[in-house]
Amino acid sequence: MANSRMSDEPEMEIKIERQSLHDAILNRLRDMIIEGHLPPGARLNEGQLGARLGVSRTPLREAIKFLASEGLVELVPSRGAMVKEFGAKEVLNMLQVAGALEQFAGRCAVEVASDKGIAAVRAMHDEMLVCYRRGDRLDYYKLNQAIHTAIVALADNDTLSEIHARLQTRLKRIRFIGHEGPEKWASAVAEHEEMMAALEARDADRLAKILGEHLTRAWERVKDGLES
Amino acid sequence: MANSRMSDEPEMEIKIERQSLHDAILNRLRDMIIEGHLPPGARLNEGQLGARLGVSRTPLREAIKFLASEGLVELVPSRGAMVKEFGAKEVLNMLQVAGALEQFAGRCAVEVASDKGIAAVRAMHDEMLVCYRRGDRLDYYKLNQAIHTAIVALADNDTLSEIHARLQTRLKRIRFIGHEGPEKWASAVAEHEEMMAALEARDADRLAKILGEHLTRAWERVKDGLES
DNA sequence: ATCAAGTATTTTGTATACAGACTTCAGAAC
DNA sequence: GTTCTGAAGTCTGTATACAAAATACTTGAT
């Protein structure tokens, strides 16, 4: 917290038209949590945060309650909200559920997705490969997420997409930790290649198998960076 | 809405110790939505609701934001919250996801559940049969839900339980509609019987198959009561 | 009578005020 | 030196107040 600024002027002021202030606060808080600016276990001081964002406590508290329902923060009575900490078991559980959801999504996708939709995912995949060869980790990471989201979207199931997105959000914070080395990175790329092939072949069983393994590998890549 | 009371006295006042007022409001709102007291599409008037519950708008709004994140209500900018309406496709999607989650839960459960845990589910099942033979729909319904929740809990995956519970909550409102006739009720009971057998035999594939079919049947039981 | 425009009322969104609970820290007792 | 106690300060939880937007209603014109 050495570089956190505690001055009273709202430097990061959120100035949006009235309607979407709620969403603006929400996104900002999410980012602060995901990027570790608000570390796990940290208390969310409503006064400070409000001053920092340039809003009063009322809409801020509403946004915090929203985040609590998303599972990013934890509400402790009379003690406010704190950034939720995830132990190893919880991360494993989240990855397992995400895997199950993606497997289900994959099975639906090969049935209902249009060729165009699959081609769009292929395009993202190719772009991701460019980032990989360029060594551009951040863009690679973003496209990686986007591809998984896109595959889920191919299943044409809003409920599924929403739940998956929520899990992804929680996991984002973790995956930032998983700075895998070059060899693990390469294997992840290879898995993605297989994934695309199975999707384009509309082979449900193969796709489900790969997606399942992909998440298992993801666990192996991040588990060492976790405590307890 | 003929019997809704609009008087200003807070008849349903919530008087709880300071800490859990938030949860109290939350549960009351959830109940009002699930039981249809707040019908789908209805606007949540903060003034009226606050007066009805005996709380000011501030904590009420926080609870509403929480429910919005749960997907029970929809936030419309400058127009407040309204009870979310689910079309046929959305209900089907929710059932499909719930099915996928339960299948995954079942596969985990047969691996990690203790015999004691499975026996507890069996006890609930037997109790449910008593309700069935007694024709007690309400208690049957509650035990039915509890059994599904319990099976998911056997998987020992908090994330899974939480997501499943959230979906169940959304579906509760729908299932109230599905007043199946005696023959369909009997088939549902038969499916539960098979479910228990597969669980006790720790036969993952069979359990998953039955759970999948069970949710498919649930869809057939309720789909006629839905529009578009 | 129907429709349009402008005004009044209602309702949401945000800020502020205040009461109660928690935290912290100083000082006394052991 | 450690631990208990309590008072000051901080923070959360709730209510109220006010501004902006939406809704309802009245009035007038066609």
How would you summarize the topology of this molecule?
The structure is a homodimer of 228-residue chains.
Chain A: H1 21-34, E1 43-44, H2 46-53, H3 57-70, E2 73-76, E3 80-83, H4 88-112, H5 115-134, H6 137-154, H7 158-177, H8 182-200, H9 204-222
Antiparallel strand pairs in A: 1-3, 2-3
The structure holds a DNA duplex (30 and 30 nucleotides).
Question: Could you explain the architecture of this structure?
Answer:
- The structure is a homodimer of 228-residue chains.
- With 228 residues, chain A is mainly alpha-helical.
- Chain A has two domains: 18-83, Winged helix-like DNA-binding domain superfamily/Winged helix DNA-binding domain (Arc Repressor Mutant, subunit A); 88-225, Up-down Bundle (Four Helix Bundle (Hemerythrin (Met), subunit A)).
- Chain A has helices at residues 21-34, 46-53, 57-70, 88-112, 115-134, 137-154, 158-177, 182-200, 204-222; strands at 43-44, 73-76, 80-83.
- Chain A has a three-stranded antiparallel beta sheet.
- In chain A, strand 2 (73-76) and strand 3 (80-83) form a beta hairpin.
- Chain A is globular.
- The two termini of chain A are 24 Å apart.
- Residues 1-10 of chain A have low confidence and may be disordered.
- The structure holds a DNA duplex (30 and 30 nucleotides).
